[in-house]
Amino acid sequence: MDNSISCMKEECGICGASLKKNSEIEIYKMLVQMQHRGQLSAGITTFQPNENLILKTHKKIGLVNTVFCAEHNAKFNSIMKKLESRKGIGHVRYATCGGDDETYAQPFEHLHGKKNRWFSLAFNGNIANYEKIKKELEKQNYHLMRKTDTEAILLLIAKELKDNKTIPDALKKISEKLDGAYNLAIINAEGTLVAARDPLGIKPLCYAIKEGEVAFASESVALESIGFENPIDIKAGEALVIEKDSYNLIQYTESKKRAHCFFEWVYFSHPASTIEEKLVYDVRYNLGKELAKGETELVDENTIVVSVPDSSTPAGHGFSEAINAPFLEGLIRNRYIGRTFIQSTNRGEKVKEKFMIINKIFEGKKVFLIEDSIVRGTTLKNIVNYINKYGKPKEIHVRVSCPKIISPCYYGIDMSTRRELIGANKSEEEIAKIIGATSVRYQKIEGLINAIGLNKDDLCLACINGKYPTKWGEKNSLEDKKVCML
Ligand code: SF4
Predict the structure, then answer these.
(1) 395-400 and 366-371: which strand pairing?
(2) Looking at the structure, do residues 247 and 304 belong to the same domain, yes or no?
(3) Catalytic choice (7, 12, 69, 463)
């Protein structure tokens, strides 16, 4: 992704488990496996029925290993001892809304004297009508301490939990108000654990069972990493409810249609994850094959295929096989740069910190450079410049495995206005000129749908076709169009 370095942020990851013992360790392991979904903060809440503080939360800013002091055995063991429990939930965050200080780290706790109303919440998604919900809450004399939709959801649920209502009852009620993507992990002080997917199933969420134990996570790779095989997708509008030692699946609200975010397959999710029974790796590989179908550039013995690692690599392999040109690793990603590189300010320098190029591979070659998506184009421009300067190729033809992004996302991906989208404003020829490539060509929407293999009507394609699956998506998009025309 051209903006993986500094602009387009990944969203969040949620998980939870009800085990015979030590859920805290397995939740920690799942968070490590979902680190790619958010690197800003991490946290765990566990259920400790014999303590005064029945719900205990540990959360901080930083990568999962840092937050739980994994490099320091004694500290890690002490944190895990404090969290020791059979049940809990976890969260990794990247800010799609709100600030980036510690008070925004999740799970968020809502304290209450009654155990069914005392709960902790972890959220993945984005509420498109957040401003409206916020105003309504404030009118009713509620106060939001943080500028984030997670707090608004927390208050809405808290409000609905009176009169002995259950969590699924509250979810049903709030689904009538919320517009957007909202996957939730909730645990209350009675020990009820809930994983809920929004009525459109925009973001992924799955669960698995093993010998009476249950675990759930945003991505199947997290479940498999702790030995839970054969993950099952939680359906749109469905909640997995775990009480005592039994679990139930409840359709807490009607799901009239589905709108699974296609970007999860293209870029966000781990290649080893399976979403809606489609392995992410396979979809990316298929994207490369589909992309090659429209290729008109001549392929000769001087032609090579290079991908921008890592998320574009399966598409690079698919493309290379289809056009019958060798796939070479000309760009090597530095996996250990961590947050230092995120703090760099000069974009050109950031590219060099993040990738090394093998000059010899590019020298005099006709290069097909495979990228999974272009949002703003700034990072890709630096990569192309970098390759041109040091690799001295004959030509660079950028091929993008995702269709052109022309509209903002209001469901959790950090691209909220057309102004920042290069694809919304420029032709392929203009983009090629701006980034210094010989040519640029994108995947067709049809190719994307073929590669995923799901019904087109079950996918959210709003950022590539401008048709939003929710009322507030449409509304926000119209507002943005007006602003962009000013
Ligand atoms: S608008 Fe695009 S990025 Fe946002 S949820 Fe829909 S498909 Fe995903």
Answers:
(1) parallel
(2) no
(3) 12
Q: Is 463 in the pocket of ligand 1 (CB under 6 A)?
A: yes
User: What domain range is 363 assigned to?
Assistant: 279-485
Q: Using CB atoms within 10 A of its CB, is residue 277 exposed (0-12), middle (13-18) or buried (19+)?
A: exposed
Note whether 70 and 206 are same-domain residues.
yes
Which tens digits make up the pLDDT trace of 251-290? 999 999 999 999 999 999 999 999 999 999 999 999 999 9
Note the residue count of the chain: 486
Residue 153, H or E segment: helix 149-160
- Shared domain for 172 and 115, answered yes or no, is yes
With respect to residue 2, please indicate whether it lies within any of the assigned structural domains: no
Give yes or no: 206 in active site: no
From the CB of 460, is ligand 1 less than 6 Å away? Answer: yes
* Ligand 1 atom closest to 263 (CA): 8
Closest CA to 116 of 182, 149, 162: 162
Dump pLDDT digits (tens) for 288-337: 999 999 899 999 999 999 999 999 999 999 999 999 999 999 999 987 76
Which CATH number does the domain housing residue 455 bear?
A: 3.40.50.2020
- DSSP H stretches of helix in 412-459: 422-425, 428-435, 445-452
Which of residues 225, 258, 291 is at a domain's end? Answer: 258
Angle, vertex CA 275, rays to CA 272 and CA 279, nearest 5: 40
